[in-house]
From TrEMBL:
Part of the outer membrane protein assembly complex, which is involved in assembly and insertion of beta-barrel proteins into the outer membrane. Part of the Bam complex. Belongs to the BamA family. Residues 1-20 form the signal peptide. Residues 24-91, 92-172, 175-263, 266-344, 347-421 form the POTRA domain. Coiled coil: none annotated. This is Outer membrane protein assembly factor BamA. Pfam families: Omp85, POTRA. It comes from Sulfuriferula plumbiphila. PANTHER family: OUTER MEMBRANE PROTEIN ASSEMBLY FACTOR BAMA, SORTING AND ASSEMBLY MACHINERY SAMM50 PROTEIN FAMILY MEMBER. It is found in: Cell outer membrane; Membrane. One of its GO terms (cellular component) is cell outer membrane. PROSITE patterns: POTRA. One of its GO terms (biological process) is Gram-negative-bacterium-type cell outer membrane assembly.
Length: 769
């Protein structure tokens, strides 16, 4: 009723404003009262032109049109002879917007929200826009669980028809979820169902996860998780009947009640295929994971439809449609499914478009593609192309879209969008132990030199124990078919005299080498290498007798022509955040004539990733190594295998597990061995509260390992024995942070021996450029 009265009042005002105007032919139009608005702007909105006959209808339309611009708070039409006079009173302009008292959000964040609501400096002031801006600020606070926020606005008139607006904000306290109730559950305990929710009542980690703060979006996601839980366990008729969210008058506590109907549990009676399959039906039937007699599972139903769709996509049927149609028998509590397959039209890829690569050259991305332009669409090749681009390590995000080509029914474009990240790095490794204190090492690398995909690295370590100066360059596409070529030039100086945990000696190694990588297929590659190395050894009276005997027999200066041969198979789905797949590596190093050192070392590693659920991944890693001399010569002691430390068995000091020697000065010290075994079992999971952030990952691990060789000073480690293995357990955190990759581990040795050196906390850190 009030709205109708207001409308009638405005209409009457327009009528009054125009009533005094008699019909006349407009010879001229004059605008009065404008200060900021241009006269031309008024003329552009005015539906009356010179030469028109002015009457009550046109006067009313003119007033309506000018009011509708929002520029004016009053409009009058007057007549002076044949001149139409438009008298306006402008709305004030917003001179300044000030925000006072906000602690939850910065002024910049709130100013952005005000702009989205249409309130910003320089705009025309409108009370309705101000009300909308207040609601926008409240929305931001509500998203943070602060329902008690109070906002007062003050509009202060200024000279020259301007106003200043001040938002005085009192944040209030965060409203916490006091209780969540599920009503109607019979098959599962409420505690089990609430464990599926991301929303929780306050707990120990709530200060970090914020999962005790209500969010409408989070509740909707939790209800979908609850529905999936039931549907994957046979409850075909499950339904969320209603949801009530209430807040206490003081805006501090929130209560959530979810009412559900479970329905009956269903089993699958039969499964069959129908429609145009194109691919032999027998082949598609092997992809069906829903089996008769099993409890109904929507997850398996979706997986089956996806597998069939992907299989058809591999043959070019990009728009294949697979629908599972149920036939429900409510009396027997059974359901039969028919997968109707519509292959659609076979399509091919018209063009491949790469966007977002501002530094990386197009050819660096395109050479990783296995899907070709002009070829039939192949889903598996597109997936593999995306994986290969992602594995380059140059991009933080890789997205693939296949939009249809306008005007065609059998063509799609392949749009690859990438987000580049820093590919240069300055890495620093650090560890701490009671015997050595802080140990640092560093390197500088650029993995995408000038956007070409070539790699250049410089390692400089000026520590008193290890000094390393090396330069490496690699061209991963020396030939168009992916043959890689690399060069290495290095010097490594080792001086263990200041270490109380490793046998005393000094060794300076100078070398230069050539590397060749040969891809065999998508997963397998062979690596060949040839390097010349010269070793200058220094041992003294404080060195173990075994080391002194080696120098006496073979001299303090030796050289070798080192031949390397390796094979690798890598099927991991990601290099930075793997969740499934396997890595196998075999690496051999042989010292061959005419070098004076003749020896061999052979290593094997197998790493396996298995997703246990959406958030949990199991990683198993095993490594073995064996080495020896030949032609009557031993394995040089400085080529021994070592174990212990952040890269093998955490919780023990670096390179200290295995045979020990009795050093005249430092007593019992590690000497390494010619055999090595290491095993790791790691359960990886997202950081609590950061489930969707792939830059952060935690893990719980168990490590085992040791080295073996000739008897040590107590006659141990001559051959492999489980009693000589060392074990540790702990937790680890890895984070691809804005300043570079960070890794932390906190480990507890399980079975340390009295002469073992422990290193409980270890970490590596770096920065990118």
């Amino acid at each position: 009723m009030q709205i109708r009265l207001a409308a009638a009042l405005v209409t009457s005002l327009w009528a009054i404003s125009a009533h005094a105007i008699d019909n006349f032919v407009v010879k001229d139009i004059r605008v009065e009262g404008i200060q900021r608005t241009e006269a031309g702007t008024v003329f552009s909105y005015l539906p009356v032109k010179v030469g028109d006959t002015m009457d009550d209808e046109k006067a009313s339309a003119a007033i309506k049109a000018l009011f509708a611009t929002g520029f004016f708070k009053d409009v009058r039409l007057e007549q002076q002879g044949n001149v139409l006079i438009v008298v306006v009173e402008e709305r004030p302009a917003i001179s300044k917007v000030d925000i006072v008292g906000s602690k939850e959000f910065s002024k910049e964040q709130l100013t952005t929200g005000l702009k989205q609501a249409g309130l910003t400096e320089g705009r025309i002031f409108d009370k309705s826009v101000l009300d909308r801006a207040v609601q926008e600020i409240k929305r931001l606070y509500f998203s943070k669980g602060k329902y008690a926020v109070q906002i007062e606005t003050t509009v202060t008139p200024l000279e020259r028809n301007r106003v200043s607006i001040t938002f005085n904000i009192q944040d209030g306290d965060v409203a916490k979820i006091k209780q969540i109730n599920i009503v109607g559950n019979k098959a599962f305990r409420e505690k089990q169902l609430l464990g599926l929710f991301s929303l929780q009542t306050p707990g120990f980690f709530s200060w970090y996860t914020k999962n005790d703060q209500y969010s409408k979006q989070k509740l909707a996601a939790d209800l979908e998780t609850l529905k999936s839980f039931y549907l994957n366990r046979g409850y075909l008729e499950f339904n969320v009947d209603s949801t009530q969210v209430s807040i206490t008058p003081d805006k501090q506590d929130i209560y959530i009640t979810v009412n559900i109907s479970e329905g009956d549990k269903y089993t699958v009676s039969s499964v069959k295929l129908a429609g145009e399959t194109i691919v032999p039906a027998a082949e598609l039937e092997k992809l069906i994971v829903v089996k008769p007699g099993e409890v109904f599972s929507r997850e398996k139903l979706t997986e089956t439809a996806k597998k069939i769709g992907d299989r058809l996509g591999n043959d070019g049927y990009a728009f294949a449609n697979v629908n599972a149609v149920p036939d429900v028998d409510k009396e027997k509590h059974q359901v039969a499914f028919t997968f109707y397959v519509d292959s659609g039209r076979r399509v091919y890829v018209n063009r491949i478009n790469v966007t977002g690569n501002t530094r990386t050259k197009d050819e660096v991305v395109r050479r990783e593609f296995r899907q070709m332009e002009g070829a039939w669409y192949a889903a598996d090749k597109i997936k593999r192309s995306r994986e290969r681009v992602e594995r380059l390590g140059y991009f933080s995000d890789v997205n693939v879209e296949t939009p249809a080509v306008a005007g065609t029914t059998d063509q799609v474009d392949l749009d690859l969008g990438v987000t580049e990240k820093a590919t240069g790095s300055i890495m620093v490794g650090a560890g701490f132990s009671s015997s050595e204190g802080l140990i640092l090492s560093g390197s500088v690398a650029q993995n995408n030199l000038f956007g070409t995909g070539n790699q250049l690295s410089l390692q400089i370590n000026s520590g008193k124990i290890n000094k390393v100066y090396s330069v490496s360059y690699t061209n991963p596409y020396f030939t168009p078919d992916g043959l890689s070529l690399g060069y290495d030039l290095y010097r490594r100086d080792i001086n263990t005299t200041s270490l109380s945990s490793v046998a005393t000696y000094q060794n300076s190694t100078k070398g230069a080498g050539l590397r060749l990588g040969i891809p065999l297929n998508e997963k397998d590659s062979i690596n060949l290498g040839l390097a010349y190395e010269r070793f200058d050894l220094t041992v003294g009276a404080t060195s173990p007798k075994q080391y002194q005997d080696f120098v006496t027999k073979f001299g303090s200066s030796n050289d070798t022509l080192r031949a390397d041969l390796g094979w690798a198979r890598d099927s991991r789905d990601s290099l930075t955040y793997p969740t499934e797949g396997m890595l196998q590596r075999v690496y051999g190093e042989v010292g061959v004539p005419p070098g004076s050192l003749e020896y061999y070392k052979l290593s094997y590693q197998q790493q396996w990733f298995k997703p246990l659920s959406k958030n949990f991944t199991l990683m198993l890693n095993g490594e073995i190594g064996v080495g020896n001399g030949y032609a009557g010569k031993p394995l040089p002691f400085f080529k021994n295998f070592y174990a212990g430390g952040v890269s093998s068995v955490r919780g023990y000091d670096t390179s200290t597990l295995g045979p020990k020697l009795n050093d005249p000065v430092n007593g019992v010290v590690a000497a390494g061995g010619n055999k090595r075994i290491v095993g790791n079992a790691e359960l990886m999971f997202p950081m609590p509260g950061l489930q969707n952030d792939k830059s952060v990952r935690m893990s719980a691990f168990v490590d085992a390992g040791a080295t073996f060789g000739p008897d040590d000073y107590l006659g141990r480690y001559s051959s492999f024995s489980f009693k000589d293995l060392r074990y540790s357990t702990g937790i680890a955190l890895s984070w691809i942070s804005p300043v570079g990759p960070l890794k932390f581990s906190l480990a507890k040795p399980i079975n340390p021996k009295p002469d073992d050196r422990k290193q409980v906390f270890q970490f590596t850190l770096g920065t990118v450029f």
